[in-house]
Write a structure and sequence with these properties.
11 helices; Peroxisomal Thiolase, Chain A, domain 1; single chain; binds acetyl coenzyme *A; alpha/beta; 4-stranded mixed β-sheet
């Protein structure tokens, strides 16, 4: 029986699939049609609960003065899981609003990219659930981990996929529910972060003067130990006393992260200006990750940027990690800024360690 079964297959000829081409014409990728990229809509979603510095001083040894002086933060938003507030709910709200702002239909979106370090699960990607929630079924969807650079990495990738004609309408979301990974007995870290989501809808346009002039994604993993979220005891670096750590909470060497950011932040602004061949004063808006008001101020002064070109909202939201840049972008658009034709520079830096920029003619 066994022999008969095998001989049946051995005598069958497997049909060769037809390549449907003349022998002289090899299968090659189609020619690229370069497209412009339009920023069609933006949005933000933050939980309603506000936690002020004074609120924190009731549960830990801190003060409004210490936090505000060192970081510029006055308050932040915090999700209440009991009320169903989560990364999925914030991203869904943000994407709904961005779709409305862009004036597109959910089923026109063909890719959803979410930058987050606090996604609900590693499988499925949070982006898949969010896409389904808004009716973008069939769109590609994935999560991207680049900490505070998550949205900007997503923007770089989405732009280039549209630019070469692979995708037409892409949603990029940046969201973190940092309160999920904070240890409130660690005052050095827990006072810094807030919860927020922001989204942008990008679309292909025939106007090739619109889109990213230049952009870059960088990382130096040798600095991972300065900012990480250990999930198991083996994640704790050698030589570090992890006995007091709560697994699943963010660990940070604030001084080292500060040094890294102070070096990379102005460096990448300068590199981006040089690559684009523009001067600092020619940029209409700088949209920078909100990690510390002192850092933003130092960079602003160094490049001689007027205050109204480098907007700061860390006082109201804290450091929202992946949500920081898109919330800022949305607030600026809400004020009538970042109009079509404006030159806008995005900059972010964070865990990884990662840093990134994108200069856009929006
Ligand atoms: N309230 C009161 N006192 C505090 C608090 C607090 N919340 N946190 C720390 N302290 C105390 C410390 O215990 C220390 O006391 P000691 O001198 O008696 O030991 C003192 O304040 C100074 O602590 P430092 O950590 O040295 O304070 P520093 O001036 O470096 O500021 C800060 C800390 C604000 C975290 C700073 O290092 C920083 O901004 N680092 C960058 C970190 C960052 O931005 N991380 C975000 C994620 S990554 C990103 O977005 C780029």
């Amino acid at each position: 029986m066994k022999t008969a079964f095998l001989s049946f297959f051995m005598t069958q000829t497997v049909p060769t699939p037809s390549l449907q081409r003349a022998p002289s014409s090899p299968v090659v990728p189609p020619p690229v049609k370069v497209m412009g990229v339009e920023l069609l809509g933006t949005s933000q979603a933050v939980p309603p609960t506000i936690v002020t510095n004074d609120d924190l001083s009731k549960i830990m040894d801190t003060s409004d003065e210490w936090i505000a002086q060192r970081t510029g933060i006055r308050q932040r938003r915090k999700c209440d899981p009991e009320k169903g507030e989560s990364v999925v709910s914030l991203c869904t709200e943000a994407l709904h609003k961005a779709i409305e702002d862009a004036g597109v239909k959910a089923n026109e979106i063909d890719l959803v990219i979410l930058g987050s370090v606090t996604g609900e699960m590693t499988c499925p990607a949070t982006a898949c659930r969010v896409a389904a929630n808004v009716g973008a079924v069939g769109a590609g969807a994935f999560d991207l981990i680049a900490a505070c650079c998550g949205f900007l990495y997503g923007l770089n990738i989405a732009h280039d996929l549209i630019r070469i004609g692979s995708y037409k309408t892409v949603a990029v979301i940046g969201c973190d529910v940092m309160s999920r990974v904070l240890d409130y007995s660690n005052r050095s870290v827990s006072v810094l972060f807030g919860d927020a989501a922001g989204a942008a809808i990008l679309r292909a346009t025939e106007d090739t003067t619109r889109g990213m002039v230049c952009g870059r994604m960088h990382a130096d993993g040798s600095g991972w130990k300065d900012l990480y979220i250990p999930q198991q005891k083996y994640d704790i670096p050698e030589g570090v006393d992890g006995s007091a750590f709560k697994l699943g909470t963010i660990q940070m060497n604030g001084r080292e992260v500060y040094k890294f950011a102070v070096k990379r932040f102005p460096e990448i602004i300068q590199q981006t200006l040089d690559r684009a061949g523009v001067k600092a004063h020619e940029i209409d808006h700088y949209i920078c990750h909100q990690s510390n008001a002192r850092m933003l101020e130092a960079a602003r002064e160094r490049f001689g940027i007027p205050t109204d070109k480098m907007y700061v909202n860390i006082d109201r939201y804290g450091n929202c990690s992946g949500g920081s840049v898109p919330v800022l972008l949305n607030e600026l658009r809400g004020m009538g800024k970042c109009k079509p034709g404006d030159l806008v520079m995005f900059v972010a830096f964070g865990g990884g360690l990662t840093w990134s920029s994108a200069l856009w003619r929006v």
